[in-house]
Write a structure and sequence with these properties.
Layout lengths: L5 H5 L13 H31 L3 H17 L1 H19 L3 H37 L4 H16 L1 H16 L4 H23 L9 H25 L19 H31 L4 H37 L3 H28 L1 H6 L5 H14 L3 H16 L4 H23 L6 H25 L12
């Protein structure tokens, strides 16, 4: 392959969905269903982890729940690269400038590696215990959670690399390859987690730490497999690993300018979740409420992942058509993606509410955890369609290059309004955990309407004359 990638531009990309031509409904569905399954597979692994850890006890379950909330405050720093790569790759592919798309991928890999190794890992290792204690974790919970958290932070570079490679392929319209990659690595993740958590044969039972061992091992394998995929020359994108590796500083401001707002949004959103955990720890139920929220939150990740999938699909579909300057298809792609997201999550929300007790009981047998977790699934089901549809519209706005509006709206509603109302309703108003769920619902619903209003304003049309580079 030549440095300018001219041979790539002439090569027919495998498994690539081009949304700029043909029936848009069909193209959006072809693009989105593998992303939905990819994220659901990831959720299945997380659910399996929580299920296995839940068998160890309520304190272990709370440890993993708090540890994950801490980790996902810092990891979005590196995810900024993945989102910037996906948006630029989608826009370049829409303009059939494949050599530029491949150049972006290479820079994304460099940037993700540098940020993970130089910032996320050392900071995460340093503040893990302090953050868990700040969230109200008991000494026993901290004892279980810190080793789990530090092990994941130590190998975060592999996790971020796998996300960058997945985002690049999805931006190019290849959503099948990430699905197959996720299927294999997640199956290995579940098997390794079981062996390491409970102990099988010569492998000793590691408890909560074993869950981190399984997750880290699977992410290392996913990163290696992704590198091999980009090296093969048989997929939508190809990276020349033998060529010169150097930083193209002129590209970084554009890549980070698109990705950083989503990264900051991810950080602030998870700060909002951490605030909810703090409020729950102040209720009469204490750590039992945190354990219940961990279970309910993990179950609800099924629909959250549908939202993330349609957000990613909307970013690609809108980005490709935006790059091709077909604004009519841009609008249609947005509302199609949002409608699909809301439809799927509505069905899931009904199932959550109807089978709430049975779902929570399958994770943990403690009566208080079951009661509060069931309550959470029923009340949080109200906001599920608004959650996923809002995520999809966020992806559409990002596909046009408007990455700031979703950030400010998320901060106002998910980081500030939701947690504030949760505290006021739960503590001063005396509603306990019920007040937490109601406050969260209001924040999610408010975000959806603000995002829909922002899209209808059409400010993103003003960016249509700008080059995606």
């Amino acid at each position: 392959m030549t440095e300018n990638g001219s041979d790539i531009a002439e090569m027919k990309p495998a498994r690539r969905v081009d949304t700029t031509a043909g029936p848009l409904v069909t193209k959006v569905l072809l693009l989105s269903w593998p992303i939905v399954l990819t994220h659901l597979l990831q959720t299945a692994v997380s659910v399996a982890d929580i299920w296995m850890v839940g068998k160890l006890g309520a304190q272990e379950l709370a440890a993993v729940g708090i540890a994950r909330s801490v980790m996902f405050v810092l990891i979005p720093l590196s995810f900024a690269v993945a989102m910037g790569v996906q948006i630029l790759v989608a826009q370049y592919c829409g303009r059939q400038e494949m050599e530029k798309a491949d150049r972006v991928v290479k820079q994304g890999i460099i940037a993700a590696t540098m940020m993970s190794v130089l910032i996320v890992t050392p900071v995460g290792l340093l503040i893990s215990g302090w953050l868990m204690r700040a969230l109200g974790a008991t000494p026993e919970v901290v004892e279980h959670g810190v080793p789990y958290l530090q092990l994941l932070f130590a190998g975060v570079v592999f996790m971020v690399l796998s996300f960058v490679i997945t985002a690049a392929l999805q931006g190019a319209g290849d959503t099948i390859t990430p699905l197959l990659l996720m299927l294999v690595t997640n199956a290995l993740n579940i098997v390794i987690n079981y062996v390491c958590i409970f102990g099988v044969g010569p492998v000793p039972a590691m408890g909560v730490t074993g869950a981190a061992v399984g997750t880290l091992t699977s992410r290392i394998l996913a990163a290696i497999a992704g590198i091999l995929i980009l090296s093969s020359g048989r997929f939508a994108l190809t990276v020349n690993w033998v060529g010169k590796w150097y930083v193209r500083w002129r590209l970084w401001p554009r890549m980070f300018g698109l990705g950083v707002p989503m990264s900051v949004q991810g950080i602030t959103r998870n700060l909002g979740f951490m605030a909810l955990i703090k409020v729950l720890s102040l209720t009469a139920a204490g750590m039992y409420a945190v354990s219940a929220f961990t279970v309910a939150g993990q179950v609800r990740m099924v629909t959250a992942m549908v939202g993330l999938a349609l957000m990613s699909g909307a970013t690609t579909a809108v980005g490709q058509n935006y790059g091709a300057r077909n604004l009519r298809r841009v609008v249609r792609a947005n509302w199609l993606s949002a409608g699909i997201a809301a439809g799927i999550s509505t069905v899931a929300a009904v199932l959550y509410a109807v089978f709430s007790t049975q779902i929570v009981a399958s994770f943990n047998a403690h009566a208080e955890v079951i009661r509060i977790g069931s309550q959470a699934l029923i009340l949080l089901a109200i906001s599920e369609p608004f959650l996923t549809a809002g995520m999809s519209i966020s992806g559409s706005l990002r596909g046009t290059g408007d990455t700031m509006s979703p950030l400010w709206i998320s901060i106002a509603t998910i980081t500030v309004l939701g947690p504030l109302l949760s505290y006021l309703l739960a503590i001063p108003a005396g509603m306990g955990t019920v007040g937490v769920w109601i406050g969260y619902d209001i924040g999610v619903i408010a975000r959806f309407f603000l995002l829909a209003w922002q899209w209808q304003r059409g400010k993103w049309r003003e960016l249509a004359g700008q080059e995606p580079s």
